[in-house]
Structure formats: structure tokens, C-alpha cells
Amino acid sequence: MKIINSIKSFFSSSWSELQAYAPDLAHPGLWGKGFLLFTAVSALLIQFSTYSAVLFNTSEVRPIVATVDDDTQEAIRLAEKTFLFNDNGARAYGPTYYRGVSVTRFFGANPFYEFSLSPSEQRERSSHFSLMTLNLLSIFAYCFLLASLVHSALYVRLGLTVGLVHLFLQNELRATLTFMGKPDHLLVLFISLAFLQSWKWLQDFESKNRILKVAAAWALAATTKLSVLFFAPGFIAFWLGRKWLSVRWTFMSFVKWIVIFYFLIGFPQTLDVPGYLSYLIHQNSYTSLVTWEFFTGRWLALFSEDLKRVFPFLLVLVPVFHPRWSRSTSNAGYAPLANYFRLILFCLLGFIFITHKKTTAPFEWYTFPLTNILLMTFVLSYQRILDPVIRFIVDGITRWGKGDRYPKLTALTSVPVRYFVVLALMPSLSGGYSDVFYSEFKKFQSCRPEARAFKKQVDARAATGAMILADSTAPYDHQYHDKNIHMTYEMKTSDLQKFQPKFLALKKSYYSIYLPRAEGGQEVPVTHITNMEDTRNFYRTFFNKTKGTDVFGQSWKLVYTDACTFELWERP
User: Fold this and answer.
1) Burial of 175 (0-12, 13-18, 19+ CB in 10 A)
2) Gap between the Cα atoms of 231 and 259, Å rounded
3) Which of 164, 272, 378, 563 is deepest in the core (most CB within 10 A)?
4) Upstream peptide bond of 95 is cis (omega within 30 degrees of 0)
């Protein structure tokens, strides 16, 4: 009866009681804040578990992973040899990502110990699962960080996180990157944290403690991936409009601490400064000016996806959870207008710099950090820019009211929407993954039965001691690597003479990227091969044939192929 009476009392509340109750939900008891928090936490856990289950089914051993993504199989290898304080030998990325995988694997149970796998295969699958799990955790953490800028109440933050994660993983590029062993999602999280610390620093520019936090955050991002350098020109905006003599110590202190934190966080790997500089110089030799067609057709795809999904979500929900419309969030006033211009200029300079160059593989996710901090800039600037407009509209609508005019409109709009978001929308989103995410999962699952069958064919011949030359996407047991199986990313005719292989393990869908379209190939632009014609002459011997004779007069016969274009060639 008490429960029934409570429900009746709730629905029969007077307007004044509802007005006092609605804006902030500060102490609504079981039926309010506590129940909403329980629902939001449950939805978040269900959502994370659902996506984790997909990642579990995606995880595989290195040879099978390499048939789809060679970079990920290399990440698995690096993750296995990485500990909290060691140098794993990688220079393309910093040590933070792989150390994070090591921590994730250490605290998580091995989900593959009951499988009929060898100890090495268990480690590889576990490392692959940990790589993807860290990517997923990074997405959840960033979405929670973005939601935290909207509202201070925990149940609101968690509820918005569920919605943002669903929208983010509707983006094909972000979904694809979740399955790959790349640190870009973690980089986005760290850059976003550093960006937020930088924003707080702008409000207290003379604070020495704030400089330490900003320097540590950016150093953490730099030890994850060196592409953080794209944002270096943007820091000019932080000092614009200031007297140099009064802030020069700030600049020197910032540079000093970011260098110190960079070496401390990445120790001892970051001590190899020549190695990282050599890698940057090597990468820079592959770059060229971005074309307009490339910019509009590739990089703008990520922005357009956010404009269609994430921005509308924020446009609707930021006013609903507006601090001035919620007594549970204190509003200490706005930052100086100049700081908002500095924030926008920081993003603009980073955008100009990142579009100045493209690499041999100009993937759209190079713009991930920039796109995500633009979302944060939007939320930070929303209240400052649009609050006068919102206040004018609300004042006009509620002019008939007395006293504070916001709570009446809030009681009619904000609270029902909050209940809908947390109670209805969030559980529905958490119950399943997006179609886009599942589509990407199917891509990474493709050709796995064929890859396992082909691997058995290659391993059986390697076990006899036969010399085999293999493409990077051809699966084989790595115990034979650099013994009697030699793998190369781009074959050359000289490799036939150098290794004198008995067998060739190829994949036509891979090597066709080097052949001209006029010959039936894909002809993907590649600038890092100095003698493309030599590579083409190698593959021309085998492309769309069952027998062939190489440039040295040696005969080859196709002895195995399948629907996924794996090919095993034998020299009689």
C-alpha cells in the first residue's frame, strides 16, 4: 500500500511541487535519481558486454589475422613482448598503447584457456582480444568525457555515454578501427584529455600546477602516437593576444615539462630519440600535398558522418541538460570570449596542418583526434554562444510566469526527455550493436575457413624443409619464419634468385593492387616502391594463370587455390 500511495502522491503532486522537483532531481529518492542511475549503469554494462562479445569472436591467431590486416598481426607480436617498463623495439608508435594492452591482459582472465589451442596460440588470441578491448574502452571513455561536459549528474553522463557510443560506432571508420591493432582510439582519448586540460589552463593561464597537468596530458598523447605533432602549431593560439614578457616563463615551463614527462612516461623506449627521428624522416619522404578530390572524398567523410549523427544528438540534448536549466549543475559563469576564439583557432591551425600532407596510405582516421576535439569545442562553446538566444526564447515563452521562468519550461520538457533518454532510449541502444559494427565484424571474419585450410597446406610443405616465399597476407606457422619461409610485402624478381623457393604462397586479391587496371589489376597508388615495374614483372607471371614461366626461365604450376584467392605455386 505504501508503494501505491507513493505512486499516487507522485502523480497527484501540485504544480509547485513538480516545479521544485523537476529541474534538478537532486533528492527524488528511489523513484528518481537512484532508479535512473541503476538503469544507466545497467545499460552501459550491457552495451559494453555486447560489443565485447563481438570482439571475442573476432580474435584470432596472428597468421589468420594477417590475411586481413597485417598491421594488427604486427601489433599482436609487439603486445606480446611489451611490459610496463621495457623497449619493445617499435618506433612507428610510442609504448603507451602496448603497455595498456599489457595491463588489460594482466588484469583480465585468459578467455581462451579452455580452447584446443597451443600456449602460443592462446597468448596470440588473448593479445588480439586485449588490443580490441582497449580500443573499445577508449571509445567508452571518450564518450563519457564528452558527456561530462554536458552535465554533472552521473546518471545523465552514463546515459549520454550509451547514446554516444552507439552513434560513434555507427561510423564505419570508427567501427573498422575498433577491430584493428592501432592506437588511434586511445590517442583520441588522450588528446581529448589534453585538450580539456588546455581549456582549463586558458582560464588560469598563470597557474604553475595547471601547466604540469597540461604538459603531462600532452606527453601521454605523444608517447601513444607521434601524429600528436599535428597539433603543435595550434599552441600558438594560446599565446596570441598576450604580452610576451609576462608569459614567456609560461612557454618555457610548458616546453620543459612536456619534454620531461615524455621521457618519464615512455622510459626507456623514448630515450631512442635518433630512432624516432629516423622514422619521422622516413615517413616524411612518402608524403605529398593533399588533393582537393582526396580531401573531399576521403577526409570529409568522417566529418559528414558526425554531422549526420553525433551533432544532431548533441544539438538536442545539450539544451535539455543545459546548466542554467538544471539546479544540480553549478554555473560559475562563462570564460572570456577571447579564450573561445583561441580554442577555435587551435582547432583551425591543427586542421590546416593535417590537411597539408598525406602519407602513402592516407587513411581517414588521421583526422579522428581533430574531429573529436571539434565535438568537444562545440559543447564547450555551445552555452557561451547560444545561451543568450536560448534565454531570449525561454523568456518569451514563459513571460506569463512569475519569478524564475526556467523551471516551468524545464518541468514540461527537460525532465520528461531525461526520463525518456535514460529509461527508454538507453536500454534499447544497449541491447545490441549497430548494423555498421556488425558489418565490419563480418568483414574481419571473411575467408577465415579458407585461410586455415591454406595455412595447413603451407605448413605441411614447410615441415618437409622446402623453401617457401610468402606474401604478407599468406598465413603460415610463424615457427618457420625466416627459416625456410621468407615473407615480403612486395615481391621482386630478384627474390626468386636470392631465395630459390620451391613454393610461392600468394593471395591474388592482395598482389593485384600492384598491377595496372588495363591488365585486370587494381592499381592502388603506391609511392614507397622505388622500382614498381620489377614488382609488377614478378606478379605478371602468376596473375590469372595456372602455369607460368618467370624471368629466369623457371616453370611454375598452380597446385592449390580457393574462393578467397589464396594461391600455392610449385616449381617442379
Assistant:
1) buried
2) 16
3) 164
4) no
C-beta atoms surrounding 218 within 10 Å: 26
Cα gap 324→387, rounded to integer Å = 9
Beta bridge partners of 507: 566
In angstroms, rounded to a whole number, what is the distance separating the alpha carbons of residues 451 and 468? 17
- For residue 407, CA distances in Å to 15, 218, 411, 539 come to 11, 41, 6, 72
Q: How many H helices and E strands in the chain?
A: 27, 6
- β-bridge partners, 358: 288
Contact 539, 481 (CB under 8 A): no
Q: Which among 137, 172, 165, 436 has a CA at the least distance from the CA of 302? A: 172
Query: Which whole-number Å values give the CA distances from 329 to 148, 323, 471, 555, in the listed order?
Result: 11, 5, 58, 77
pLDDT tens for the 572 residues of the chain, in order: 544 554 444 444 434 443 443 344 444 444 456 777 777 888 888 889 889 989 998 999 999 999 988 889 999 999 988 988 888 888 888 899 999 988 888 777 666 666 677 788 888 888 999 999 999 999 999 999 988 887 777 877 888 888 889 888 888 888 889 999 999 999 999 999 999 898 888 888 877 788 888 999 999 999 999 888 888 888 888 888 777 776 778 888 888 999 999 999 999 999 888 888 888 777 666 555 566 666 666 667 667 777 777 777 777 666 666 544 433 333 445 677 788 888 888 888 877 777 665 544 445 667 778 888 888 888 887 766 666 665 666 555 555 444 454 444 544 455 555 555 555 555 555 555 667 888 888 888 888 999 999 999 999 999 999 999 999 889 999 889 889 999 988 888 889 988 999 999 999 998 998 888 888 888 776 656 677 888 889 999 999 999 999 988 999 999 999 999 999 999 98
Which H/E stretch holds residue 547? strand 547-549
DSSP state of 336: P
Q: What is the spatial distance between Cα 231 and Cα 214, in angstroms, rounded to a whole number?
A: 14
CA distance 150 to 379: 7
Q: Which residue has the cell 584529455?
A: 193
Round to whole Å and give the CA distance between 555 and 572.
Answer: 7
Give CA–CA dist 292/299, Å, rounded: 10
- Cα angle 253, 254, 256 (rounded to 5 degrees) comes to 65
Could you tell me the sign of the dihedral formed by the alpha carbons of 242, 244, 250, 251, in that order?
Answer: positive
Query: Coil, helix or strand for 548?
Result: strand
Q: Give yes or no for a contact between 139 and 184, defined as CB atoms under 8 angstroms apart.
A: no
Q: How many angstroms separate the Cα of 520 from the Cα of each of 355, 517, 536, 537?
A: 32, 5, 12, 14
DSSP for 247-298, written as a single string:
HHHHHHHHHHHHHHHHHHHTTTGGG-HHHHHHHHHHHHTT-BPPPHHHIIII
Taking the CB of residue 349, how many other CB atoms lie within 10 A of it?
18
Q: Are 223 and 270 spatial neighbours (Cβ–Cβ below 8 Å)?
A: yes
